[in-house]
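Before a colleague's protein record goes any further, I have to sign it off. I want your independent view on whether this chain really folds as the tokens say. The record follows directly below this note.
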Amino acid sequence: MNLGYHSISLKEGKKGNTILEFETHIETLCSTFHSKKFPEKLKKITNDLALSASLDTLAQINRVRNCLEHRAGIVSEKDCDSSKNYMSVKFRYPRIDSPNGEMAPSSDIKGRQTTDINFIDEEKKFRQGEKVSFTFHENTKLIFSLNVCFKTIIDGIYDLFNVNQENSETILREFKNV
């Protein structure tokens, strides 16, 4: 997340009389950003990139991470959603449906199927005192949800710098030749 903010800070107006003074200013911005708590970083990124999509899923996943790291995965009052006795995490993922049911990494559906892809929003709740755990299928949903959030941030950076994403390969090739 720090590298991303370093890129955003480059859009900052000129500060100082020399490139070294400007570089110091950018480093100060990055250091200030780095010292913030994760939810504050998400708010700053959302505001700086003028993102229309929410990054709440990242904040929820970070809460789950904190619970796993600091409380051995046992949900405490500190982890719970505001004014609730549970912690929730939302998934947004593509579900592949066939006439025989959902096709997932762990499904038993075999053979050719006519399928539809539907994007699903789902929420999992962990009550206070409950141990956090995810199934293999839930982990794939979490990973896709993370990808959606990261794509939102990447799109915001492209928009900030007025870069056409279709030209990414050309830009990278030209950058390597510099």
